[in-house]
Amino acid sequence: MIKKCLFPAAGYGTRFLPATKAIPKEMLPVLTKPLLQYGVEEALSAGCDTMAIVTGRGKRAIEDHFDISYELEHQIKGTSKEHYLNEIRAIINNCTFSYTRQIEMKGLGHAILTGETLIGHEDSFAVILADDLCDNNEGETVLRQMAHIHKRFPDCCVVAIEEIDKSETNKYGVIAGELIEDNLYKVTDMVEKPAPIDAPSNLAIIGRYILVPEIFDAIRDTKPGRGGEIQITDALLKLALKGKVLAYKFSGKRFDCGSVDGFVEATNYFYKSL
């Protein structure tokens, strides 16, 4: 099983200004938990115990959250409120966290490359974008589903995909591929944010990846693309042309919590699930 999970968390969160002027968007709460904690819990469910977080300026709240607050613990010890910290205590006790900063925002590909020193080159690793919040009710989490696939195809990257309205392809990386079994495609083409008329399909990549170490060299060899940024989609295409990328249509529900509409939808969904 994969052991390391990388969380790119250096973005500005401009769609949530002014709230994100001082609060990292990854720390915005859906009910009582920040988005990033949901992501870490999903990584744990897939067997990861090493969390590598790529941060930026103004993101110290992330490190503080995944650390012990002795004063707070002392204040609520022995009270009826103590149980509220049980989940985060369990995470802190079962994970190792490491951090590095992305000095310049040059795209998701660059953010993943920035995490290379935390991840190393020995094994495959996961990537979770915390603002894509996923839930599968009582079933296996999206990343755990993907980990099963990667165990069967250890030389391949695995990306999570879902069907979208063709009119929205300009918001996503979009794949074309050969269906090799139920819900699993061998990727033959990938395009970052194509216009609907140019999209190879309506199968969009969402913020869950399992990547092989070879991806780092692929990113290094990738020139800036859409928006002048280094796109992970362009780097993955290099491996896809070698038959090394699979796309999995996951079981579950995904919320785009990088948008206000998706954030509100997720909050209502999880509230009704209480």
**What's the architecture in CATH terms?**
Alpha-Beta Complex
Q: Which H/E pattern describes the elements?
A: EEEHEHHHEHHEEHEEEEHHEEH
According to CATH, the fold-level topology is Spore Coat Polysaccharide Biosynthesis Protein SpsA, Chain A
Largest sheet: 5 strands, mixed, barrel
Stretches where pLDDT falls below 50 for ≥5 residues? Answer: none
User: Helix proportion of residues, in percent?
Assistant: 25-40%
Let me know the average pLDDT: 94
- The count of DSSP E runs of length 2 or more, i.e. the number of strands, is 13
SS element count, helices: 10
Structural class: alpha/beta
Overall geometry comes to: globular
Mind telling me the CATH class?
A: Alpha Beta
* Cα-atom radius of gyration: 18 Å
Q: Assign the CATH superfamily.
A: Spore Coat Polysaccharide Biosynthesis Protein SpsA, Chain A
Number of domains: 1
Q: What is the straight-line distance between the termini?
A: 31 Å
Strand content is 25-35%
What strand line-up does the widest sheet have? 8-11-9-10-12
